Amino acid sequence: MSAIEFKDVCRTFRRDGKDLLILDRINLTVADKEFVAIVGPSGCGKTTCMRMAAGLEFPSTGTVSVSGKQVIEPGPDRAVVFQQFALFPWKSVHENIDFGLRAKGLPETERQKIIAHYIGLMNLKGYESAFPHQLSGGMQQRVAIARAYALDPEALLMDEPFGALDAQTRVVMQEELVKLARKNPRTVLFITHAVEEAVYLADRVVIMTSRPGKVKEILDIKSVRETENWDQHQKIEDVMDLASFVHLRSRIWKSLREEHAGDH
Amino acid sequence: MFVGSRLSTVLLVLAAMIVLWYVATTITGLVGPARLPQPLEVWQSFVAIATDGYGNGRLHQHVLHSLKLVAMGFTVAVCVGVPLGLWMGHSRRAEALINPTFLLLRPIPPLAWIPLAIVWLGLGDAAKILVIFVAAFVPSVINSYTGVRNIDKPVLEAARMLGIRRFSFVREVLVPGSLPMIFTGLRLSLQASWTTLVAAELIGALYGLGSILNQAAQDIYPAMIMVAMIFVGICGATTTWLLGQVEARAMPWRHERALQ
Amino acid sequence: MSLARPMTDRERFALTCVGTLGFFCVWYLAAFFQFAPAKFLPMPHEVASKLVQLCGQPFAGAILPEHLLASLKRYAMGFGLAAVIGVPLGLLMGRFRWLDRVVSPVFDSLRFIAPVAWVPFAALWFGTGIGGPTLIIFAGAFPPCLINSYRGAKSVEVKYLEAAAMLGIGSYRTITEVLFPAAVPSIIAGLRIGAGLGWMSLVGAELIVANSGMGYMIVKGQSAIATDIVMAGMIAIGAVGVAIDVALRKLEARLLRHRQEN
């Protein structure tokens, strides 16, 4: 059974008395434990896709379902990592991760074990009692990722999670996310406008057209990654130098460029 | 409140003020005693009201009486106003329902309620508590409302995503998220409470700082007027300071420094 | 709580109507069932007709428009004075550290005294006609005018001041052509707060010391136990307060639009 499924999803916004079509018949399935990245020109509705899977917005027609259930509200089975982190400023790192676990009703000892595990995994040791504003952007996003993973969700939804970080931090976070994703495979829907990021992280990359957003093409990255054995390289720049990576990246670039050309 | 005021300059300026006041009222006689009292007279009046009493009681009785009324009106206003503001901020439907009443009553300055309160409740404490309530209520509601509306939208979405519901949502998301604005509201409420109380007591009261002002004005006793004014200022400053202390304790996360 | 439904405009309108009607219904019902004697709780339409009646029939020595005029005269004096002194002083304090250091202690030691507490001295020094109430309005409106223009001047980005210094612009022109324009939004916010507090202080002053004006009218209504007059006066006071705020908001919109066009 596919984990996330978009079936004939359309979405219109009403603006100045006119209905504006922003998503046009999106059909997309994300398999269980698959990492899918959506790239597309800005304003193409990729973030709206993620928000519909999260239950924060709803399709005008069509359905979005996760694990076979239609999405009707937000919930901890579909954890979101927001671009602006969205940590609770009044809660410490520990409390931020714990908050969702408490809401799920897990017993104290189990919660402590889970929190300790993800604090270790995301290199947050020693910062348990710090408040978010005391941390750098990269550290805050680590907390947000730990918070999402700790929920043990059926799907992880990430909305340009590294978009607000500086270039160096971004690279470190991408490498860590790859390690986490390979060690701890989950169903992930990852929204980004950075092509390298999509190729580096995802099993499949979905390219969208400019507004109204449609699925333009879907590229399989996983097979290339496995035959070319990308994962033997620890550093992102080594992967990015591989001919297979360069090839995929320029394919996506060309595809996106057509969309930009279409704007004019 | 201004940056760059060092203690030494503050003391110097205040000392200069007192010297100026002394020179103007005594040595040069620039300002007549019926207009501005001499520093020594003010001190004597202070001693007189503190030991023998003036109006209907001694200074501490007046101060405690005023404090009691402010505390009661302010507390009731905050306990009703803050939850109402939070509710209106959270629920657009509640806002649409309650806002009309609020918009109709809000423009009337709290001091304009004093005559109505006197007609309804007489010259006793009840009327004063009512007007303090009216004065403190409006800023409590408006700022709590704004506080909720100012919470980052992604933070609210994150709470929904995590499955935070009902009581836990109010206690751990809505309230802490709006706390900075709630305290802004409380400060304004407190200020409005004192202003209204002094006005209500000036119009008619047996006890309280305003009643001293009223009595001293009728007796044409400028030194006592000044003593009462000084204590109005001290009470206002002290209660505001106390509120600031509560604020700092209530929001520890705002005062920790960055780690890196 | 599923498929969260946003509120439609029609629903909002309906709820607003229910809320408005509800307010008047509660009032009518309270008066109808003699929740309080009619003398103390007139019905809304009685208050409205009293409001109209007061415009033709003198109460407390004058008809309502005359009371209003007397109030506005005092208000214009007090608020005008507060703005004319407060705004430039705040700007200068934001610019010159030494002035800040001298004025701040004086200002801070006075600002916690509630404006109405000045009433006895105001009457003693300036009488009960225009001067006394003017001082009280001034005491109410002055602090926000000063504080906001001070903050406005402090928040001007250093690069503008450095650019002015680099261009060799003198102190006076730096204030009028750099500091003041940059601080305008904050100054107007201060004027609006000050206008509200000044209007409230005016009512307070007139309740206690004046012999004309809106506050005087309602306090006379109170001693005559004419609740309808008190309420009509409150409504008029509220309406004028709103009108003042709307005027200032218009001014704000005009000034700020002008900035954006530049």
Question: Can you characterise this structure?
Answer:
- The complex is a heterotrimer of chains A (264), B (260) and C (262).
- Chain A has 264 residues and is α/β, with parallel strands linked by helices.
- Among the domains of chain A are: 82-193, P-loop containing nucleotide triphosphate hydrolases (Rossmann fold, 3-Layer(aba) Sandwich); 200-219 and 236-264, no CATH class.
- Chain A has nine helices and ten strands.
- In chain A, β4 (61-66) and β5 (69-70) form a beta hairpin.
- In chain A, α2 (93-104) crosses α3 (108-121), α2 packs parallel to α4 (137-150) and α6 crosses α9 (243-263).
- Chain A is globular.
- The relative contact order of chain A is 0.17.
- The model of chain A has no long low-confidence stretch (mean pLDDT 89).
- Chain B has a single domain (38-251), classed as Orthogonal Bundle (MetI-like fold).
- In chain B, 77% of the residues lie in helices and 0% in strands.
- Chain B contains ten helices and no strands.
- Chain B has helices spanning 7-27, 39-51, 59-90, 92-105, 113-121, 125-150, 153-161, 166-203, 209-218, 222-250.
- Chain B is globular.
- The relative contact order of chain B is 0.12.
- Chain C has one domain (50-261): Orthogonal Bundle (MetI-like fold).
- Chain C is 79% helix and 0% strand.
- Chain C is built from ten helices and no strands.
- The mean pLDDT of chain C is 87.
- The chains are: A alpha/beta (264), B mainly alpha (260), C mainly alpha (262).
- Chains B and C meet through α1, α4, α5, α8 and α9 of B and α1, α4, α5, α6 and α8 of C.
Write the layout of secondary structure elements.
The complex is a heterotrimer of chains A (264), B (260) and C (262).
Chain A: E1 4-15, E2 18-30, E3 35-39, H1 46-54, E4 61-66, E5 69-70, E6 78-81, H2 93-104, H3 108-121, H4 137-150, E7 155-159, H5 167-183, E8 188-191, H6 195-201, E9 204-208, E10 215-220, H7 222-228, H8 236-241, H9 243-263
Parallel strand pairs in A: 3-8, 3-9, 6-7, 7-8
Antiparallel strand pairs in A: 1-2, 1-4, 4-5, 9-10
Chain B: H1 7-27, H2 39-51, H3 59-90, H4 92-105, H5 113-121, H6 125-150, H7 153-161, H8 166-203, H9 209-218, H10 222-250
Helix pairs in contact in B: 2-10, 3-4, 3-6, 3-8, 3-9, 5-6, 6-8, 8-9, 8-10, 9-10
Chain C: H1 9-32, H2 44-54, H3 64-95, H4 97-111, H5 119-126, H6 131-154, H7 158-166, H8 171-208, H9 214-223, H10 227-261
